[in-house]
């Protein structure tokens, strides 16, 4: 490549990425009906994530994720982009399932792993590390050594959407992937944390399709909101917990703080029957300092009376 020449961007073929679950022979869904067929026919999580990672059922999302992968953000112009659906990731025997909205265009759509490579992920993984669900406080690339412990992550919509706003039809088309994943982890699952109102609303039909009795009317979303559900497949029940999304807007404005996120995942640990972690002890002082500084700055600016 000549000096100053832009690297040529190419779409990543199945099998050409670190820990890529798919290969050239992985079947591809091109419609909602095919999503239902391939998701329902996956016998293992590996088979499910492979099929999910090559899905092309939503033309608008396919076009957008690939356009982003080919044009790239200037800060990442020397990096290849994943540019495909982001499958569920984490422990196969998970007590906790964390559900988000959709991958970020230059986060998961770039790195190939959910909540990896963006500021929301930085905030989230720091908390998961402090509360014992992750082995590292950061998540920057698919091959960075990060690993979830007793936990798994998934998105209500697997592809990065334009303006971070998937359409209801796209959410519904994607739902069978999440239903199938829920079925494959249900034996060990005890808690589901929904990050944001979109994920909270998207989970109710998924839970209903799997056999859980969903309250009517559907419970309102809120930070710390809790609903316990039972089904024949999960007689011990699953606790659904609402959590504000750790978006930049929420974390920059103080709507979500490290202590708030830690409280959610500490509650999840207890509800899942997992032991306490000592990492939070060293983080508590940082939380107090951070919150005091945030409150002081708001008071100085006149936003706190």
Please tell me about this protein's structure.
With about 300 residues, this protein is of the alpha/beta class. The protein has a domain at about 90-300: Uracil-DNA glycosylase-like domain (Uracil-DNA Glycosylase, subunit E). It is built from ten helices and six strands, in the order αααββααβαβαββααα. It has helices at about 30-40, 45-50, 60-70, 110, 120-130, 170-185, 195-210, 250-255, 260-270, 280-300, and strands spanning about 90, 95-100, 150-155, 190-195, 225-230, 240-245. The chain has a six-stranded mixed sheet with strand order 1-3-2-4-6-5. Helix 5 packs across helix 9 (about 260-270). The longest helix is centred in the last third of the chain and has 23 residues, at about 280-300. It starts with about 30 loop residues before the first helix and ends with a helix.
What's a quick, concise take on this entry?
This protein is α/β, with parallel strands linked by helices and 305 residues long. The chain is 40% helix and 9% strand.
Category from helices, strands and their pairing = alpha/beta
CATH C-level class of the domain at 89-301: Alpha Beta
Profile the largest sheet.
Answer: 6 strands, mixed
CATH H level, superfamily name of the domain at 89-301? Uracil-DNA glycosylase-like domain
User: What is the number of helical segments per DSSP (H or I, 4+ residues)?
Assistant: 10
Using only C-alpha atoms, the radius of gyration works out to 19 Å
């Amino acid at each position: 490549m000549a000096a100053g020449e832009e690297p040529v961007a190419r779409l990543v073929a199945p099998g050409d990425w670190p820990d890529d679950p798919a290969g050239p022979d992985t079947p591809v869904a091109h419609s909602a009906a095919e999503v239902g067929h391939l998701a329902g026919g996956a016998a293992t999580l590996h088979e499910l994530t492979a099929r999910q990672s090559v899905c092309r059922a939503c033309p608008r999302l396919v076009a957008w994720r690939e356009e982003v992968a080919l044009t790239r953000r200037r800060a990442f112009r020397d990096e290849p982009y994943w540019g495909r659906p982001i499958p569920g990731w984490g422990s196969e025997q998970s007590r906790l399932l964390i559900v988000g909205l959709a991958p970020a265009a230059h986060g998961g759509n770039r790195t190939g792993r959910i909540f990896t490579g963006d500021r929301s992920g930085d905030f989230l993984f720091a908390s998961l590390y402090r509360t014992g669900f992750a082995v590292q406080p950061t998540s920057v690339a698919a091959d960075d050594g990060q690993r979830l412990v007793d936990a798994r992550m998934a998105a209500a919509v697997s592809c990065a959407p334009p303006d971070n706003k998937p359409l209801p039809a796209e959410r519904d088309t994607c739902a069978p992937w999440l239903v199938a994943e829920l079925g494959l982890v249900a034996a060990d699952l005890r808690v589901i944390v929904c990050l944001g109102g979109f994920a909270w609303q998207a989970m109710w039909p998924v839970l209903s399709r799997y056999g859980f009795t969903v309250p009517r009317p559907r419970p309102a979303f809120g930070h710390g909101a809790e609903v316990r559900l039972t089904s024949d497949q999960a007689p011990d029940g699953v606790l659904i917990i609402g959590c504000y999304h750790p978006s930049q807007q929420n974390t920059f404005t103080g709507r979500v703080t490290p202590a708030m996120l830690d409280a959610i995942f500490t509650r999840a640990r207890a509800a899942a029957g997992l032991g306490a972690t000592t990492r939070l002890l060293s983080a508590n002082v940082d939380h107090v300092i951070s919150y005091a500084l945030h409150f002081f700055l708001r008071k100085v600016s006149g936003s706190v009376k």
